[in-house]
């Protein structure tokens, strides 16, 4: 039984030893216990040899690690020394740099202020040249000065004499060209969008004209374009005149602001647009004015012709039937035997027949002179109603919403006065002429009655 237990224990130990040395070459299976014991002894010996080899490797590696550590420490010490040297050098450089900067400040003195002024003047000149119409003839000036101003402001290097002279020459050229009227060829964008090479006349630094029209210079794109809307005709006449003459003095519509006043001038509404602002009431007022003017013209011509005939009749003893005075005088011959009273009544009747022909249409002219301002007042009230409606709907934040109603109110008032004033004057003139003519008829009729009365007596 004991032998059997030892046998089991021996087999278990052998199995453990075989498991630990699994990486070694697999031995042959034992045939008996002696071979098993021999294999166990060989396994312990192999394991002991392997441990010794591992321990030797560990010792060798420990020596190598120690050497690497010493090399790293030596390198660290060298770098620390180098860092200390560089820090010392950096501090020395900073001290030296401060001394040099101080020396530079002292050396520059007033030149530093001069270069600051140079930079400011250059920047201001670049902005002025950018918007100047002279740049239409000499492009690229603003970009050159802007680059110089940026160089002076951002660089520690002092500008050269040539660069300073560049600014002086540019300013001098601007002043010189602003007093000239020059002509040059450039590409012009017409009002319809077409581009064409045209001869452009530059009037100082104020205006550009070509082909009898005013031009505008776009400082952003550098293009020259014809104004879509031109100013009044008298300004266009001056633009044509300055292009046609070679010397002498020419009246020209000059814009001293370089285009601002011209831009406002072309935005002003024309006479047609003013009339359109009056709306329906404005058109009615103008229609009344035209009708009244036609009536007045007809009365003026008629009274002038009748007056000439009456003047000729006054110089002739023989009455004629082609004028009012002649027809009144014929009544005397028609009733030669009538007494004074009857003749007076007949003459009064003849004069009354002539009065409607002489005063015809004068009443219509008077009515128009009265109705026109009333129509203007109607347009004023209508325009104010529209204005208050716009205020109710949109408030008073945007004045343009109220401009339409206010324009209608003012324009209709003006139109009513424009029609009423001349109609009143024309009525007064025509009425005076007709009264004078009727007075001549009455005077001649009184003379005929007096003559008949003397003859009857």
Automatic annotation (TrEMBL):
Coiled-coil region list: 46-103
Protein keywords: Cell membrane, Coiled coil, Membrane, Protein transport, Signal, Transmembrane, Transmembrane helix, Transport
Superkingdom assignment: Bacteria
Lineage, opening ranks: Bacteria, Pseudomonadati, Pseudomonadota, Gammaproteobacteria, Alteromonadales
Gene Ontology CC terms, in alphabetical order: plasma membrane
InterPro entries: ExbB/TolQ_transport (IPR050790), MotA/TolQ/ExbB-rel (IPR017270), MotA_ExbB_proton_chnl (IPR002898)
Family recorded in the similarity comment: Belongs to the exbB/tolQ family.
Domain MotA/TolQ/ExbB proton channel intervals: 336-442
One Pfam family of this chain: MotA_ExbB
Organism: Idiomarina aquatica
GO BP terms: protein import
Endpoints of the signal sequence: 1-24
Name of protein: Outer membrane transport energization protein ExbB
Transmembrane segments: 281-306, 363-385, 405-430
Compartments in which it is found: Cell membrane; Membrane
Primary location: membrane
Topology within the bilayer: Multi-pass membrane protein
């Amino acid at each position: 039984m004991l032998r059997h237990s030892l046998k089991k224990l021996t087999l278990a130990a052998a199995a453990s030893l075989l498991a630990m040395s699994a990486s070694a070459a697999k031995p042959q299976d034992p045939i008996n216990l002696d071979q098993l014991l021999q294999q166990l002894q060989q396994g312990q010996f192999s394991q002991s040899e392997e441990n010794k080899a591992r321990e030797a490797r560990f010792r060798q590696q420990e020596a190598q690690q120690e050497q690497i550590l010493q090399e790293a420490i030596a390198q660290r010490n060298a770098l620390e020394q180098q860092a200390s040297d560089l820090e010392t050098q950096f501090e020395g450089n900073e001290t030296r740099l401060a001394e040099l900067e101080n020396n530079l400040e002292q050396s520059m003195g007033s030149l530093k202020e001069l270069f600051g002024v140079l930079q400011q003047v250059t920047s201001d000149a670049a902005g002025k040249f950018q918007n100047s119409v002279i740049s239409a003839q000499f492009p690229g000036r603003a970009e050159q000065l802007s680059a110089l101003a940026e160089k002076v402001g951002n660089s520690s290097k002092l500008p050269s004499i040539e660069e300073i002279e560049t600014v002086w020459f540019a300013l001098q050229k601007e002043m010189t060209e602003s007093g000239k009227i020059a002509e040059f060829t450039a590409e012009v964008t017409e009002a319809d969008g077409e581009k064409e090479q045209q001869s452009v006349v530059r009037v100082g630094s104020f205006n550009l004209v070509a082909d009898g029209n005013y031009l505008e210079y776009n400082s952003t794109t550098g293009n020259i374009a014809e104004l879509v809307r031109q100013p009044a005709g008298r300004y266009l006449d001056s633009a044509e005149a300055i292009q046609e003459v070679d010397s002498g003095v020419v009246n020209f519509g000059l814009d001293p602001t370089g285009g601002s006043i011209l831009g406002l001038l072309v935005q002003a509404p024309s006479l047609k647009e003013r009339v359109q602002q009056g709306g329906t009431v404005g058109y009615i007022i103008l229609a009344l004015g035209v009708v009244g003017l036609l009536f007045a013209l007809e009365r003026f011509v008629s009274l002038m012709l009748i007056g000439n005939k009456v003047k000729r009749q006054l110089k002739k003893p023989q009455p004629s039937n082609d004028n009012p005075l002649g027809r009144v005088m014929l009544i005397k011959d028609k009733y030669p035997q009538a007494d004074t009273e009857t003749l007076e009544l007949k003459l009064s009747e003849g004069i009354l027949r002539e009065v409607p022909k002489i005063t015809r249409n004068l009443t219509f002219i008077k009515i128009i002179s009265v109705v026109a301002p009333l129509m203007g007042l109607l347009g004023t009230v209508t325009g104010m109603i529209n204005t208050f409606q716009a205020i109710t709907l949109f408030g008073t934040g945007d004045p343009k919403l109220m401009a339409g109603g206010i324009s209608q109110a003012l324009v209709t008032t003006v139109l009513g006065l424009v029609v009423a004033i001349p109609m009143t004057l024309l009525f007064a003139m025509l009425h005076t002429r007709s009264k004078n003519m009727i007075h001549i008829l009455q005077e001649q009729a009184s003379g005929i009655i007096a003559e008949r009365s003397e003859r009857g007596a």
